[in-house]
Amino acid sequence: MNGYKEIGSTEKPTCAKLVLEDGTVFHGYSFGAKKSVSGEAVFQTGMVGYPEALTDPSYRGQILCFTYPLIGNYGVPSEKEVDHNGIPLYFESYEIHTAGVVVSSFTEKYSHWQAEDSFDVWLKRNNVSGIYDIDTRQLTQIIREKGTMLAKIVVDSEPSFYDPNHTNLVAQVSIKEPTIYRPLGNPLYHILMVDCGIKYNQIRCFLNRQAQVTLVPWDFDFSSPEALHHIDGIFLSNGPGDPSMCKVTINHIKNILRLAEENPNSRIIPLFGICLGHQLLSLAAGFETFKMKYGNRGHNVPCLELTSGHCYITSQNHGYAVDTNNKKIPHWQPLYVNLNDQTNEGICNDRYPFFSVQFHPEASAGPHDTEFLFDLFLNIVQTNKTAISSSKCVSAWDMFSNYKKPKIPHSLQDDVGIRKVLVLGSGGLSIGQAGEFDYSGTQALKALKEEGIKTVLVNPNIATVQTSRGMADKVYFLPINPESVAKVIRNERPDGILVTFGGQTALNCGIKLYQSGIFHEYGVRVLGTPIETILDTEDRERFNFRLSEIGEPFAHSVACSSLDAALKAAKEIGYPVILRAAFALGGLGSGFANDAEELTNLALRAFSTSDQVLIEKSMKGWKEIEYEVVRDAYDHCITVCNMENFDPLGIHTGESIVVAPSQTLNDFEYHMLRDSAIRTIRHLGVVGECNIQFALNPNSRQYCIIEVNARLSRSSALASKATGYPLAFVAAKLALGIPLTKIRNSITQSTTACFEPSLDYIVVKMPRWDLKKFTRVSKLLGSSMKSVGEVMAIGRNFCEAIQKAIRCVKENYIFGLDSTVVSYSIEEMLNPTDERIFAIANGLACGISVEKIHQLTHIDRWFLYHLESIILLEKHIQDLALNGQPLQEPDLWYAKSLGMSDKHIAKCIGETELVIRSLRMQLQVKPLVKRIDTVAAEFPAVTNYLYTTYVNGRGYNLNKQSQKNDVEFDKEGIIVLGSGAYRIGSSVEFDWCAVSAVRTLRNQHIYSIMVNHNPETVSTDYDECDRLYFEELSLERVLDIYELEKATGVIVSMGGQIPNNIAMQLHRQHVRILGTTPEMIDGAENRYKFSRMLDRLQVDQPEWKELTSLEDAKAFCIKVGYPCLVRPSYVLSGAAMNVAHKPEDLESYLTEAAKVSLDSPVVISKFILEAKEIEVDAVANRGELIMHVITEHVENAGVHSGDATLILPPQDLDEITVRKVEEATVKVANALNVTGPMNIQFIAKNNEIKVIECNLRASRSFPFVSKTLGIDLAKMATKASNYDDINVLFVCFDNVCG
């Protein structure tokens, strides 16, 4: 919600404001109970668990800010469902304890099978006030810098500030009379629990372990002989406020401690405290407590256990801490320490069975990693049951010292040191294995270099960044196969090898080398995940067996090695089934079969690429959830990112829209799957990074593990970019045996890498398909990948992110979730294609209900509700225009916060994009710049990994404040535009060019700013440039960034066709384009202008004509004779470029060309048969060639240059032909006044040459010619673009290979 309750709603939002005691005012809107409240403002960084958080008594009297921007997605479960003791099943106490709630936005239309009410309704029923449309990130930063402070939510009358820390809050929340809770079955223990504000899950944890609980009030004298007589242990609960307020409880604890010291014959009752209970025990022991600056409240806090050296991820909620540094108390030892802020997290007695922890092992909300402490405490209780005196008791310290101590792996104990490592790349890009492995391999090489290790890389892909000079110490451009790699091993004698950074190709090669004995023969250690573990995950039968060992669920399946076996298995399991191929990439060979005929077809294809298939029961329609998991050799195990597929199971995750973090899982489901992921990865023995995929029943807690990729995967790059956590970099260090706790968080530089990122934004990944390039190819999406690339979009709500993603994929030909692109049909809903989301939009616009679309597609209602809100907004804006009403500031803010582009808004009201932009500037509706920092602003970040958002921006205008961006704009750097999504014709080679450009700028001490939205690339690695904007490559967004950054120029020549396409538009808005002028770029891209120029220069070209009408085109073709070539303007890789052999072809191709060429002309030219094609890659300065390279195509003209085989130097060109090519290149470069890169393509026949086309940008072949010659043309072109003085340029050229 963002200032509208809902489009079409008659209910007007109620204005409210959040006032801090330092005078800061945030303007927003009221939800929940519409009343003013005051309390202490705190923030919480958890991404799930809002019902649990608000009912946690520790938040008593506080105004809680949720840093995650969308709250209420899964609604609120029933308050009436209770267990056999009457304890509510889904809440942590009997009421909401927070004074108020602050959110960026909340969801009214929730979606979850357990939900009974919306978040808003629940707050109203509990009379709790909330405020939304607040920039919660900015609020978090204020609290972080200034500390927790008093605050008030003002709706009606303004209340006074209230400090809850001056009140005994424990007395308010504690029970008044003792209560007994009994487990199911006979109790094994009797635990007395002191209620200082207890969370119900602490009671549940004891009941689940067959302990009977007697819960007593905070001031109950549990030290009296009567109280101690029948109990086995004492538990001190969490609670709110200042621990010094609980002097009565502290005195009772002192009595327990004194009894142990002074009466050696007395029976000692073990004692365990949590959170406030930890502080109370510490005060009783003689330590002191202090109020923290802003406390620890989140689900991802790393705590190091000092007895074992093991680190655990913990859930926390406290504003006070124990000081164990300034005072040493006999027999009391620090037990845990916070690895982020180094505060104490636990104490333990080395004589008696007493200990406590600051964090919440019972979690709820949060991870369950330390729930074993309840087992340990009950072990202590059981061990000491027979101790009749204090002298016979077993201390807590002794129990900790011998409990679950991780073992150092034998391979690391005998480590002789790794000095040289062989890294296997992924080879040529393919569907399912693209540029993400260039990113992964590059990260690995950086990590190894940082550790002083020599690296040898095997990768034949010359277009990659990892094969660039300076990345690896030595590069072999050889195939990734056992024979080639074995030769390298014999020659280089590496100490270790990394096989998990090059996709399935490297993995399969590594497995074959392992099985052949090559590694053993030459003493090469497989670093990271063992090969046997990889085989466990790749072989489906072995994988299922390993899962069964730990009781993890998997789909009923049978491994088969023949068609007959597959058909037999399917008959036993029952149709529908899914067939999966072993050792396959991108779901290759997999698919769903409804009958034997479909299965036969699938199996025959699968057995052509794999010798084993798995037939398993179909769970089509279930949710698909992924976790990226990191584990080191010392058994530290964390989940870095969890993701939810927009599409249900049945569509390969590479084909699906993916959202991070998950949006529709509640706390229990999130951590249930997290627990399963960690348990599975530990059992398998993965060391490094891996991906695990789950199928989750949308109507229950039933789940199955689909698969584990025990290597860096496509999802790994996405997760790294989505969270800011460099998975490949960390995985490479873990492979060397470095503990996770010894690696720093590279973004904050102050916290450990042994943590789980908190996001305060939403990421949407959307695949890109190029299916239109192929005839007779099915557009249906299924379990096998067809997409060739993907984009990632970041926003502060789902609508903003999904609309950005759509524009990035469609390169702004489509303006967002446009309801007019594809017509709705039931067929499209049941059998999805690459354009189903637009069919859904059309259906919603036509009145098809969310429920109907959900039933047909199984897409979660939550996602559909948000798509519906965009469609309703679109209609609302159209209605404004129809009624002659102008767009007001609130309309614009709302439209922009739901992700609508200026073009989209303009289309709705019949205006132009620039008119909307002008209106926005006039009304000060401008985007905010936010940073990705892995910690939701809890700690300062030192990197500049950025995105833009309009969410929560309006409040600054209302308050007459300047907009609060996360960065200052005072560098005036140069912007480099990246290549966007990989697609046919634009792939990793343009990323190499963009990376070369930003590295050149940095080497020249020029502030570099990269704009790109492709998560697979090295250019979107935040340490490659001074500022990275993960953003759209559109006129609107580039203008926003250019104006915000006060940039001195923009380089459009390194990212392929997309940046070139907006060069002229940027120029018209007074953006300084570096290098060749936009007029000249247009002169080359516009087929008509370019052909006219060649005529003027008397440079030969095939006969041509501009399309004016179909009849004229047909007449031209008859005149020159078929075949003829149809050539649209401003396109990449020959998009819609076709050879027409007859009039029927011509009409079809002209229609297609007109669609992609939009406002630019389509030209028809004579196609010359049996001609040779020649390319020239060159760099020029003000029309003068600095360097040129001629390459020759093996195939005759007619094979696109991207599909052709290139030879350098040319082998079959006559000297006369070469001279003519050079002369023509000089003429064209001079006429277009080229500054920077250029590529010209010629055809030659009988020593006559003709120009086909010229691109005034880097080409696909730039990396090829650069690495072949050892001269970086992209670097040279970048320098040419930034130097006006050619003499200075030639000085730079002397060192261009450096």
From TrEMBL:
Residues 544-736, 1091-1282 form the ATP-grasp domain. Its EC number is 6.3.4.16, 6.3.5.5. It comes from the Eukaryota. Its cofactor is Mn(2+). GO terms for biological process: 'de novo' pyrimidine nucleobase biosynthetic process; glutamine metabolic process; L-arginine biosynthetic process; pyrimidine nucleotide biosynthetic process. It catalyses: hydrogencarbonate + NH4(+) + 2 ATP = carbamoyl phosphate + 2 ADP + phosphate + 2 H(+); hydrogencarbonate + L-glutamine + 2 ATP + H2O = carbamoyl phosphate + L-glutamate + 2 ADP + phosphate + 2 H(+). GO terms for molecular function: ATP binding; carbamoyl-phosphate synthase (ammonia) activity; carbamoyl-phosphate synthase (glutamine-hydrolyzing) activity; metal ion binding. Pathway: Amino-acid biosynthesis; L-arginine biosynthesis; carbamoyl phosphate from bicarbonate: step 1/1. Small subunit of the glutamine-dependent carbamoyl phosphate synthetase (CPSase). CPSase catalyzes the formation of carbamoyl phosphate from the ammonia moiety of glutamine, carbonate, and phosphate donated by ATP, constituting the first step of the biosynthetic pathway leading to pyrimidine nucleotides. NCBIfam families: CPSaseII_lrg, CPSaseIIsmall, PRK05294.1, PRK12815.1, PRK12838.1. Belongs to the CarB family. This is Carbamoyl phosphate synthase arginine-specific large chain. It comes from Galdieria partita.
